[in-house]
Design brief:
about 140 residues; Alpha-D-Glucose-1,6-Bisphosphate, Chain A, domain 4; about 30% helix; 3 helices
């Protein structure tokens, strides 16, 4: 594990509620991420990130650590294969804060293995750029092109 967290901050011309809903609402996240988060959002509940494909492929799994709508979400995060080995789980925190007439969205992903760091360093900027575009314009980026 690496102690250096991955932190990504972006500003979105929107409201906290709209950004929060776009991040968590499956109908919306499938449009800009081509994935959805499956969970009942209770602390301790199982969480999974599922691809919007014919097989409904489970990409990542974990547990809800914190859920404070519309401002903070924290979950553990792991590839499905090592899910039973909690020492291989990383942590994801999503913070949504009002910043004047904008929203400051901060994603902090820590406790990363070298492989997970490689994946999320590439993935989060794509996903969050597409989220920003989607919330501000209604059009997602084609991040899987």
């Amino acid at each position: 594990m690496n102690d250096q967290p991955f932190v990504y901050v972006t500003y979105i011309a929107s409201t906290c509620e709209a950004v929060w809903n776009a991040f968590l609402d499956s109908r919306l996240s499938r449009q800009y991420w081509q994935h959805e988060q499956v969970c009942d959002w209770q602390p301790g509940a199982s969480w999974s990130l599922v691809a919007d494909d014919a097989q409904r492929t489970v990409k990542h799994v974990g547990r809800v650590l914190e859920f404070r709508p519309p401002h903070r979400l924290a979950v553990t995060w792991a590839d499905p294969s090592p899910a039973a080995r909690t020492q291989q789980h990383s942590r994801l925190a999503v913070d949504v804060e009002a910043a004047g007439e904008m929203v400051r969205l901060t994603v902090t992903h820590d406790q990363l293995s070298p492989e997970m760091r490689r994946k999320i360093t590439y993935g989060w900027p794509l996903v969050l750029s597409s989220l920003k575009s989607f919330v501000e314009t209604g059009r997602a980026l084609d991040i899987f092109a």
